[in-house]
Design brief:
The structure holds two protein chains of two kinds. By secondary structure, chain A is α+β, with helices and mostly antiparallel strands. Helices cover 32% and strands 10% of the residues of chain A. In chain A, strands 2-1-5-3-4 form a five-stranded mixed sheet, with helices on one face. In chain A, strand 3 and strand 4 form a beta hairpin. The radius of gyration of chain A is 28 Å and the shape is globular. Helices cover 34% and strands 18% of the residues of chain B. In chain B, the strands form two sheets. Chain B has a 21-stranded mixed sheet. The N terminus of chain B is likely disordered. Classes of the chains: A alpha+beta, B alpha/beta. At the A-B interface, helix 1, helix 3, helix 5, helix 6 and helix 7 of A face helix 3, strand 1, helix 5, helix 18 and helix 19 of B.
Chain lengths: 277, 605
């Protein structure tokens, strides 16, 4: 739909008589034969957008800025200038490919950019709300939920939204669980457990099927002899072994769980798990 | 007839025409001998509804210009700063309905700081004196305060319809004012706003005898409403056609509402989670079976399959199904649902349905025209979830009428997109969002240039395009060369050099909105569009290579454009050098001059 300013521009301008468009310096209207291309260095992608751009600036040759037509000096020629776009795009393609591999490694960059992917806040809030079933009778937790919702929205102004949003009075603390070699992730509600054993028991049921003859109190998953180890990603993004810290501390810092296959390491486990990626 | 108003108009018309004698488009008094008396012309023109047509009409001659302005009852303002309330009010004396859009679209994604502007209040103040009988107000991305809402309630006795989309600044208190004061309200539509939920009893503020509501949409409100009052309201409002409740309304409660309002044409369910037993299923099904007029259905939240099926009897006439807030497990569950919706034209889903869900779409929705697939977990880096290129292709095979797509995916290939547009050559809106920036074709590892090339070459009616993935200037060369009908283009993390933007600016004759972020376009690119921006509504560039110097130059060459630069830190703005990067640039044409309400972090050059 055309908006009405189109018309208003023609008839209703309240501005003084318009200035005639001054003819610009010759460089402006030419086909920019000497314009240098910005060398895109995607290896710098691992930063927020502001830093990303400032790095781009330092990479681009100074001639770009000087191309502004009002500058009296002639636009400088870059040594790599070429007026045919196809050859220059080949150079750029080469640069981009080296960066492309990095993104294929699923770096942290894409998920830390403000406003990307372009999903409205409202939609994000509703998806987070989905984590909680909305029972009509109990609303004592609603106040807190609403307040925390706002916090999340504010936080999302600068960072990506943490998918495991929760609060003190929440009924559910859902975290994702992945197992190596098993493509489908599952979700567990940590608040329905009070200790590691029941959690591990439930995970076993989920991923290994229930064991009718299980009589031991220590679950297979937590046992040293198991071929798997249960780890979790904490607030700092490190993977730690589950079970080392008090339960409440664990639930307050866990972001997601991962059942890893133990590598065949002769000398025990411990903090190496942080770099087992 | 309206003799008095006709005489008044003739008198004031003489005054007005003297003010406007400097019109460049006037064909002056020779048209006095025109065959149509003004009354007839106005009567005829009052039947012209489309804005484009009305704009054309007003350019024919001065008489037609005047007839058009006197007969117009609805004004659409695409950018609230392109024109001032004074100008609008002066030109159009008989407006009953206003639609205004405010902030740039990227404000939806937190790219525009708070308090940027786009406040409705100054408009309302003028409308109160110029259009006391204003009936409808539809706002998108405007700041609306509770004071403004109260102002609406108390100053416009005929006020009927309020629609707020993606607005902010108000709370449930404001809604309470509307409910309390607007005796003739027919429409209260408030989806997707950044509003504050103060848990007030706003719904209960509708007076006891109030019964005129036809549209009520409070689906995105988080707080509870008093169900008894809602039930009574629905019971009283016999003309209610659209009801979209929020998640606090349970299935049982929804049933009670539907028993009172089987005439609904649009329904947004609450939470389909249910505490009642299986025995009540037949009753639920009967209730839904009575809703034979339903053409739009949106389902919220966790829908257990056994209760999902109660909806089936109501789906026969469904043309729009919105499951983008519901976790429907893909494949069978979705297929069963879709099998009950043979007339479906528009479908919104979450990507958790997977490719297998999209296959179901392809098999069951031959009449599908619009598909939107939203990410269930946009911030998860998850290769195994979501939809891929194969889902996209499945849909295109089964839905040849598809012309609108919004598709969030983790990966895509050039070949798939080419196949899709070959199957569906009539795309008008193609919005593809590959969620990892700079991601190439995941099979060939090449840029996604050819994909978008295929889109613009094949889809001649393309009006809106959003690009993503690894893209070089080649993509933009294609766009500039082939996308002759393109009006809106969204670019993010794309392009290799200034040429990209230049191709587009020199190529797309109908371009009206261009929004770019995180792309390597600099001053030369910005300035190449010098002569184009006045024919466009707006240009947005953020995190690009544009500097203050380029912006200043643009501003000085084009006085009818407002060139606004935003910086996160307003102190930086005042002492910014020419060589400094301009973080966020928003350029738009305006007849109102620079805006007077710009906050400190916005600099108009």
């Amino acid at each position: 739909m055309e908006d009405d300013t189109l018309n208003l521009l023609d008839g209703e301008s309240s501005l003084p008589a318009e200035k005639r468009l001054k003819p610009l310096a010759s460089e402006e209207s030419s086909s920019y034969p000497h314009e240098s291309k910005i060398q895109l260095g995607l290896s710098l992608c691992l930063c927020t957008d502001d830093v990303f751009i400032s790095k781009l600036e330092s990479l681009s040759s100074p001639a770009t800025v000087k191309d502004c037509p009002t500058m009296a000096e002639p636009s400088s020629t870059s040594s790599s200038s070429s007026s045919s776009s196809s050859s220059s795009s080949l150079t750029i393609k080469a640069n981009l490919f080296s960066g492309a591999k990095r993104t294929a490694d699923h770096s942290a960059f894409p998920r830390q950019v403000v406003g990307w992917p372009p999903v409205r806040n409202n939609r994000m809030n509703n998806l987070i709300n989905q984590a909680k079933p909305a029972f009509t009778q109990e609303f004592d937790s609603e106040d807190m939920r609403t307040t925390n919702m706002n916090d999340v929205v504010d936080a999302s102004n600068n960072t990506s939204v943490n998918p495991t949003v929760w609060n003190e009075q929440s009924r559910t603390l859902l975290v994702k669980v992945y197992m190596d070699g098993y493509p489908i992730g599952r979700k567990v509600n940590l608040n329905s457990h009070i200790c590691y054993d029941t959690l591990a028991g439930m995970l076993e049921d989920m991923f290994f099927g229930s064991r009718k003859s299980e009589t031991t109190t220590t679950s297979r998953l937590l046992a040293e002899s198991s071929e798997f180890v249960l780890t979790y990603e904490d607030k700092d993004g490190d993977y730690m072994k589950v079970g080392d810290i008090p339960w409440r501390m664990f639930t307050s810092s866990v972001k997601r769980l991962r059942i890893m296959r133990k590598p065949v390491v002769p000398n025990g486990f411990g903090e190496e798990y942080g770099c087992l990626e | 007839m309206r003799f008095d108003s006709v005489m008044d108009r003739k008198r004031s018309k003489d005054c007005v025409s003297s003010i406007e004698s400097s019109d460049s488009n006037s064909v002056s008094d020779s048209t006095r001998s025109a065959p149509f008396p003004d009354e007839v012309l106005e009567r005829v023109l009052s039947l012209v509804k489309s804005h484009k047509d009305r704009s054309s009409v007003s350019l024919v001659c001065k008489d037609w210009y005047n007839a058009e302005r006197w007969s117009r009852t609805h004004v659409f303002i695409g950018n609230c700063y392109s024109v001032s309330p004074e100008i609008v009010v002066r030109r159009f004396p008989k407006i009953r309905s206003v639609t205004i859009k405010g902030k740039p679209r990227f404000s939806d994604f937190n790219l525009v700081p708070k308090n940027w502007g786009a406040e409705i209040h100054p408009w309302l103040v003028l409308f109160a004196s110029a259009y006391p009988f204003l009936e409808e107000l539809r706002l998108k991305r405007m700041t609306v305060t509770d004071t403004s809402l109260e102002f609406i309630g108390t100053n416009f006795p005929n006020f009927k319809a309020l629609s707020l989309f993606s607005c902010d600044g108000f709370s449930t208190e404001g809604l309470a004012s509307i409910a309390k004061h607007c005796k003739n309200l027919t429409e209260l539509d408030i989806p997707e706003n950044g509003m504050e939920d103060l848990k007030g009893a706003w719904l209960s503020c509708f007076p006891e005898n109030f019964a005129s509501l036809e549209v009520l949409n409070f689906a995105s409100l988080h707080s509870d409403v008093c169900f008894n009052d809602l039930e009574k309201l629905v019971g009283r409002c016999k003309s209610l056609k659209v009801l979209k409740v929020n998640s606090h309304v349970s299935l049982d409660q929804l049933k009670r509402l539907l028993d009172l309002a089987p005439q609904l044409t649009e329904l947004g369910t609450g939470s389909l989670l249910q505490e009642s037993t299986i025995h009540q299923l037949p009753e639920l099904e009967r209730t839904f079976a009575k809703c034979t007029n339903l053409h739009t259905l949106s389902c919220l939240w966790e829908a257990s399959p056994v209760f999902l099926q109660v909806l089936y009897p109501a789906c026969w006439n469904l043309t729009f199904l919105n499951l983008s807030y519901a976790t429907v497990r893909g494949g069978e569950e979705l297929a069963k649902f879709l099998a009950h919706c043979p007339r479906l034209k528009r479908l919104w889903l979450l990507d958790s349905v997977g490719d297998v869900g999209l296959e179901a779409v392809g098999s069951h929705c031959p009449l599908l025209e619009e598909l939107r697939v939203f990410p269930a977990e946009p911030f998860e880096d998850n290769q195994f979830h979501g939809v891929t290129e194969s889902g996209f292709v499945s849909v295109s095979r089964g839905c040849p009428k598809l012309h609108y797509v919004l598709y969030f995916c983790q990966r895509m290939t050039n070949a798939a997109v080419s196949t899709v547009v070959k199957n569906c050559p009539n795309f008008t809106h193609f919005r593809l969002c590959i969620m990892n920036p700079h991601q190439p074709d995941h099979v060939t590892n090449k840029p996604m240039d050819e994909a978008f090339g295929a889109v613009v070459k094949t889809c001649k009616s393309l009006v809106r395009l959003s690009v993503s993935g690894l893209l070089t200037d080649r993509t933009f060369e294609y766009i500039g060369k082939y996308a002759k009908n393109l009006e809106t283009l969204s670019v993010a993390f794309a392009g290799s050099s200034d040429w990209g933007m230049k191709y587009v600016l020199s190529g797309c004759p109908r371009l009206r909105k261009l929004e770019i972020r995180d792309s390597p376009f600099g001053n030369a690119a910005l300035l190449s569009g010098l002569e184009k921006y006045e024919s466009m509504r707006s240009l947005w560039m953020s995190a690009c290579n544009v500097t203050m110097k380029g912006c200043k130059l643009l501003a000085s060459e084009m006085p009818r454009l407002n060139v606004e630069v935003m910086k996160e830190d307003e102190r930086e703005l005042s002492k910014s050098d020419d060589g400094d990067q301009a973080d966020k640039v928003y350029v738009y044409r305006s007849v109102a001059g620079r805006r007077s309400d710009a906050p400190p972090f916005v600099l108009t050059l």
